Amino acid sequence: MLPTDDRARKGLPIFRGPMMYFPDALLAIAAVCKAGNDQHNPGQPMHWAREKSTEQMDTALRHMMDHGLGTTRDVDGMYHLAKAAWRLLAELQLTIERDAQAQAAVQPEPVTKK
């Protein structure tokens, strides 16, 4: 997650970067999150039901194709690109997690002195 080193943390301007660059887009993605949670996890707190959310790349591409063909909004009124962005963020998150697991698996255990 976030680094503990102060300099490294300051090098990740989460608020001044993506939040302030793309506020409307992030709000549209947040709406997709809420709608997905209401659909797949009714009555439950917000969470990503990963076992119900698969095929990120194919689904993202279908939403991008709909947008590219001139249909900017899905039947529920949400932007196809917001749904595609959600899917791409999901795939990026999974990729980062897999890479971190692979990295942890190849790193040698620290030597402890007795």
Structure, described:
With 114 residues, the chain is mostly helical. 61% of the residues lie in helices and 0% in strands. It has a domain at 15-41 and 52-97. Helix 3 (23-40) crosses helix 5 (80-106) and helix 4 (56-68) runs antiparallel to helix 5. The mean pLDDT is 94.
The succession of helices and strands, N to C, reads HHHHH
Distance between the termini: 31 Å
Number of strands: 0
Note the beta-strand portion.
under 5%
Shape, principal axes of CA atoms: extended
Give the radius of gyration.
18 Å
Helix proportion:
55-70%
Short description:
The protein is mostly helical and 114 residues long. It has helices at 6-10, 15-21, 23-40, 56-68, 80-106.
Q: Which SSEs are present, and which pair or pack?
A:
Blueprint: H1 6-10, H2 15-21, H3 23-40, H4 56-68, H5 80-106
Helix pairs in contact: 3-5, 4-5
Keyword list:
114 residues; extended; mainly alpha
